[in-house]
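User: Hi! Is it possible to get a structure for several chains at once, not just one? Here's what I have:
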Amino acid sequence: MSVRALWVVSHEKGESGKVRFSRRFPTVEFRAKSLAGTQYVAVPEDRVIPQLLLTELGLVDPDKSYVEARDDCARQHRSPAVELRLDGPGGRTLWPVLTVTQGVLILACLPLVEAPPVPRPPLPSLASVSQGLALLSGLQDFLCGPGGKPESDVLASRLAALPSVLLQVCPLGRPLDTPPPAGSVPASVAPSPGGAQKQPAWKAGVHRGRAVVSVALTEKVRSMQYSKNSQQDIWDVYGMVMCKCEVEGVLPNVIVTLTLPHNGSPLQDILVHPCVTSLDASLLTACSVDENDGSAFSGPYKFPFSPPLELFRLCSYTSQVPVPPILGSYKLKAEENHLKVNVVLKLHESVKNSFEYCDAHIPFFNQNLMGSVEVKVSSGQLEVSKEKNLLVWVLGQKFPKSREATLEGTVHFSGTVAGPTDPLCSGLTAYAKLHFRVPDLTLSGCCVDQHSVQVYSSAKPRIVTTRELVSSEYYIWNSTGDTPVSSGLMVL
Amino acid sequence: MTFADPWDQKISAFLLSPSQFLATTTCESFLAELLHELRNDKASDQLKILIVSLLLEHPTILCPSSSVGEETALELLSVFSHTPQKSIILKCNVMLAITNVIICTSCLANHTKMAEDWLDFLFQMIQDTNDYRCGLSHQPIRATACECLREMETCSPGLLSQKLEALHLLKQQETTVLHQSYCMLYTLGLKNAIRILTTQKNVTDLEFKSILGGNEGFAWKSNQLGLTLLPINMMVHVPRLPPGLDCKELKSIMSSLLEESYLQTPISQSALLRELVEVVAMVPGLSPTLFKSQLLRLFGTADVSLMHATLFMKDTFTDSLFTAEDENFLLKRLVGTAQHPLLRISEKLFCMECILHFPENRPISSSGEESLPVLVTPRLAASLHPTVFNDSATMLCRLNLLCLVHLEADEGEADKGISYLLEHIMALLKIIDNDGSREVVVTSFRALFIFLMHFNGMKELSEKVIDKLCDMYSKHSRLAPNLIGLANRIQEHLNDPVWSVKLLIGLQKCIMEMPPLQLTIHNLSWHLKVLKRVAKEGQITQRNTIYLLLNILINSNLCERGNWQVGNAVLAVCRNLLEHPSIDQVFIELADLLQYISVHYDDTDIKEHARFYYTLLTNLSWEKLTGILAKGLDGGRAKERSHSAIMAENEGIASNLTVHKTNRHVLQLIKVQGEASQRSLESSEMLETTGEAKNWLEVYQGQFQTSGFGSEVTLRYSLTHAKDTDHLFDKVFTICLHFEMKDSNYAKVNDIHVPCVFRDRKPPEVQVKLKPFQPYPTTLCVSAIFTTQDGRSWHSRLPDVSVSFSEIFLPLPLPPNTSCECKEQVFDRIWEAAASGNPDKSAISLFCFKTGDESLTDLIKTHFQGYLITDQQSKRFWKVLFFLPPTCHVLLKITQAEDAIQVSIATDNWELLPFVNSYLQNITDHCSTTVTDG
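Assistant: Yes, the chains can be modeled jointly so their relative placement is included. Here is the combined structure:
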């Protein structure tokens, strides 16, 4: 359960890759050598690593349309692990190299294969693989932070801190913990001297100061709407409960309870944080891939846990809701040199008409740049971005009383300069994408009652609970054009 | 920072490529330098941590032998004890480095004193539970000590097997965050101890109990397990203790470990679970139901490493822990997890791999290949349908899984499912049609490959795909290489040419039907590529291809333009046509085509080749013709092309001249022994040996004004056959030796041409002229291109040639008739200058060794003869000068003192001193030596 080596490689556009950080674990290499015997392949020097990695990830020679080593159709890139071909095709290979790509960064590690190397063992039979994946995920969070795109100086300082982080979490190639996410160091923590009670390894100290427990429930809704008989509209909801518990004590007990309204549909695919101490079997029974028999357990969902110091995701779930919050229709008609546009959005009556924001983005691809735009909206304002060939319909905080809003008009493409392109949206294949956020609402009806949060601790904490609904990948496709998906798809 | 910067550069250069870095210095001197800096009180902790990191990451490069490893570890230990208490991070790094050095240089395996001491030292350190003695600030050191011990136990299993009681006690006492470290250390020790016990016959209750109560020394001898310890799920036969042992105590230990597992980080928890699973598997007295209490928590976890450990448990215990209901449930959770919107892509891909290798209670096959668990139905897997919105890895992974699902499904259901998948493929191809990016094209062809690998047998389906592909090709001929690649790969992987042949027929037809306007020069090169591939298929008639080519040549201006590349591409098609089995049917047409080219094509090379092909076609039987064209290597590697394939590719002439490769050494260079190699010395006429006293040094230095003066070393080698070469290579001709330098210390060496090497004749001598920029030892990579008697060309590597430091020595570059006085004057002047620190890089050093009178004379004779400036045998005093091109000097004054020989060294480049030292050490090896730095 160890990794042989670890790399952070960057590849800026137009430049060859560069090793920004690397760490080798020679004792693991020593074991690898004796485990693999004659099949042993040594880890190559850092100077050749970027080229090998970029070739496997298809990132070399961007100006050549076909390079066999990069584009061979029989080389299947469908696994979290790639093999590096050290002497070109047919030569020695280094496997399994796990990789994670974020922006210009590629994180990679080489887990130890504790199995006979020939025939190549299946990935799930190797214990080091999931540990390597966890290590890479942790590194990704540490280096990139929540925004995912750190400034170059911030990144440099985080890279410089990596050796001391690895000293703690992976000193000799065996991951002991994941690196702490960037900027997660909680305030007001006192180191915990050894007392009678054992200190968990995932909690560096104990909280000192005012006790506050905050529980934030966020639901995200995705949808693909086609307004066609041949094509079923689809939508789904997934939720997560983020907690931050500033509570005294080595192992304070907290219970958070999620409740559903009467006859609400059960929460499915519940995944919980490792700090949850026990789980009732009934919580886990509902599963989105299963037939629902209606008799499933529908709460209350109790999660007893002992919290870590930092913000963490207590649990996540998916839910099937009967209707999408906003039902849309989008019709495009091509006429000489211009397009007739008609978009209608209807807010479902069960949804609170109080948004933080609600926008519809209507892009036009594979056209020349827009000329005149004669479009009217029944509610909200219209913003036109001619250089992006984009209409942004800002619906604002509220739908009109009728809960229905319309956008209608024509868009001329008189320019001679080509606008943005997209291979999916050719001809009349086009979409409108909705972005909205509704505070204090969940579609599943799930909620965390402030009074249901129980904290077993000496000081009575302040308890804050919030909930919100946020759109994610909410598309309404033009019903007069082809849709870019096969008709059989039932789910996202 | 002024101190640190050159170090930063050095360290990053070393880390980027140790081999290149060490080409400019020796590893001993670099190691000495590192250790020296570590003892420097003025160096910052930060710099020292960087320096330690080199030893930590590359112990075997810096310590090439066990003895060097032991010495280095000792040095590091002294660095550790001299490091101030507050430098915690540095101390931890030094501990890791010592552990790495000890393990990797086999000090641990060989049970050296150092390893023993280090182990005691670490064990001493971890006694300070809860930081009573050293305080909280020392916690990281204790954590590191635990980790070091754990690594040593892993690399030498059983080491801690007699210390389990002590370790258990420590684990119980520890209540800080380090509890996890103690727990893992104890568990690993426990597992290994039991594993060792399973190798014994007739284990008694007492023996079994004694492992838990062990409180003795380190078990150096019990190490019979070796390092190649596989996790037990990998073993055909799980090692087991005999049944009936009293497991009460072990059981309670296991339960408490499991109860407290919750205190560990998820990654460590998963490691702990795996160790415990192995223990239970080895001890029949323990029941897998021990884990029952943890199962629900594990089923619900969002952590992938814990989920993975659960699957390991499932694999090991199958239905003795997991009911059929549990199995079904676990699989459903796995499918749900594989598409969970909140997991990362790599985690979801891994979950899908886990589905394809799901450890079923009743597996149908256990081949380790991908196979679908019987419980995965189309309904269950519906949520994993690929879509065009997926990233490419997810899409391909889902497609592969769904192909398996629908392949297994019942008929009606399968048809529906497969047509969904086909629709998906068509949606992908439509994106390509709309000018999708290169990435989309590549991903779509990979998807096609997966789809066809599963469903190529379904005629209707695969024909639909062919129609679509041909349609796409007619619009986007740039897809030619992708299509050819697909046809090739499908043919290789399925051992069934049918689909590929159909695709190629379709493409041929497509090209025939193209309106002439579409046959532009640019598109034509793609079409010719396709036709060339089509011509390889014996089952496809080629008449249309030939007509088309002739038609194009006659009705366009291609022949007048005389573009070599186009001509070559046309000939490449013809070449494959010549080999076509039904050539008889199109004999006349092909002859016409070749003749037309040989007459009308406005490029001599193309004309000649066309004529050559024409001659082959019209004069040889088909059998002979294909025999010549397909002439492969001995051993039937038919893919190798021979000389007659000279026109087969169109990517430049270089790749056309096919040179065969052999991976074995055919030739080698052997250093010519005997008198010192011939030194190249351009004698300078202007030096007069008579005349009044001159400043000889000025005269000497004046010579360097002439460019190229004294800049070369000539080394002589004989070029011979390597051992055990094939008889094919007994006589080789027109050999071209090519040299590559492994470092940048030398100028490029010119190729050397040798007419022939015969095995039974005297080997020819070659002179390699080296032009150093820096006179360091180096290695030459040598390769040769040569021709064998049958006229084929070969490329082969020669064994690397290493050039030692002393091989670069030249005598003082003065004309041969220069008097001894002149030489001595020059020697003395250079010495004086070096001693007074001019130039800056000058240095003086001293080397001593002991030897007898006679052997000293011998030594001087063998090693310094050509370099002696004065030889005062009687006074037992010698002056020796080595000139090292381009401008370095190493001067030696050798005197015999009472009890030792003193060698005073002066040089104008101190960077050479390590090499001088190891050179002197080498030649005086049989004597005891002492070195003093000057």
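The first strand of chain A starts at residue 3 and ends at 10. The longest helix of chain A spans residues 127-144.

User: Great, thank you!
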